[in-house]
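From the shared-data thread, chain only:
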Amino acid sequence: MFIDSHCHIDFPDFSEGVAPLLAHMQAAQVSHALCVSVNLENFQRVLALASAHHNLYASVGVHPDHDEGREPSLEELVELAAHPRVVAIGETGLDYYRLKREEVDWQRARFRTHIRAARAAGKPLIIHTRNAAADTLAIMAEERAGEAGGVMHCFTETWEVAEAALQQGFYISFSGIVTFKSARDLKEVARRVPLDRLLIETDAPYLAPVPHRGRRNEPAFVRHVGEEIAALKGLPVEDVAAASSRNFFTLFAAAA
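Structure, as tokens:
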């Protein structure tokens, strides 16, 4: 069985409801999914999904690109993370893709708040980094993110960045991008990440893997990510499914 360690099935893209997605998951041998929060305004929608379905879990956090709505405080994140269906803090991190480095002091402050909340709550971090790897790793080290642990989600960076995150005790999660023909460097990173530190995800509704590229993504498609990583590592797909699922429950201990 596979597990989708990161999706956003609360988004309006899934207006038909969760029932078809759960049926597709079962047919594809995807047993669980983690629905990841991107803002506080819609957190209750994420939590409602996790509370209503035994095989769905929630996180709480505000995405680094989210520049509208309520800013999270450490105290509020810790309080919301205490719910038993919330297994992680995030997604959080840094994203400089649309902004210059000198324009994102607020992102760095928010990231530090999330790390401190994760350490206080005793729950792992889900970290997003885009065009900001050096600052992301530096803040992780400064704020002792390794004490909480976590995952570098939708990883697209170099092996050197992966290795630095692994050294801080983090897992590396691969999305459908690893199935793209153009992702040669990322495929090499996937070969090198140890099997016991690897997760798979969809980031649905985004980044559908081959052979569904260009379509709306959904948790059932995570098996294609697992199959690609198995091929890259020269392993039976059952080994990757078992290891990544075991890693999920090791990292997100509240889900066990």
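The chain has a mean pLDDT of 96.
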